[in-house]
Amino acid sequence: MLLDLKHITNISVKHRLEIKKVVTLSQLKDFIQVMKIYDEHVQDIYLNLWNHLQIKDTPLSLYVGYVHDSPVSIGSLFSHEKEGLLTNLITLPEYRGMGFATQMMKYRIQEAARNGCQQVFLTASNDVSKYISEKLGFVSLGEKYDCYECTGALEK
């Protein structure tokens, strides 16, 4: 799906969810904690990424959304020149339906615009993420397909 940021003038973000860019190892562990519901083997991958995340001006940014200092939602943004890619939109099951995924999406769209992106892409891997994306102005670029990463992950 695609969102053309040249036509977006204002995306307001409610502040019920405190969103922080991952800049400390503790925040990375919070990111991993939420990601584990999606992939229980993810810890090693993201801990190995830690050194790359420390590089100034890295194109990859990880974000954690907190409610009362507890991590409940995550998202990633890869920015390169005028394009951005949103990945890893995950909210803990007990916090779903409260608008946190939408807030995380809006926040990352704003970050992409601040990074100079003119277009943002994503893959909506389920009906909920497709609904949120379309609500925010994304348009489909193709047919739905089964996302290999989440086949079975949502069944857990």
SSE map:
Elements (H helix, E strand, L loop, with lengths): L1 E3 L13 E4 L3 H11 L6 H12 L6 E8 L2 E11 L2 E9 L8 H15 L4 E4 L4 H9 L21
Parallel strand pairs: 5-6
Antiparallel strand pairs: 1-6, 2-3, 3-4, 4-5
Task: Explain what you see.
The protein is of the alpha+beta class and 156 residues long. It has one domain (2-155): Aminopeptidase. Helix content is 30%, strand content 25%. The chain has 4 helices and 6 strands, in the order ββααβββαβα. The chain has a 6-stranded mixed β-sheet, sandwiched between helices. The two termini are 26 Å apart. The model is unreliable at 148-156 (pLDDT under 50).
What is the overall silhouette?
globular
Q: So, the CATH homologous superfamily?
A: Gcn5-related N-acetyltransferase (GNAT)
**Please, what is the average pLDDT?**
84
- Which CATH class applies here? Alpha Beta
Question: Sheet bearing the most strands, described?
Answer: 6 strands, mixed
CATH topology: Aminopeptidase
Number of domains: 1
How many DSSP helices?
4
Second rung of CATH, namely the architecture: 3-Layer(aba) Sandwich
* Spans of at least 5 consecutive residues with low confidence: 148-156
What is the N-to-C succession of helices and strands?
EEHHEEEHEH
Class by alpha and beta content:
alpha+beta
Number of strands: 6
Radius of gyration: 15 Å
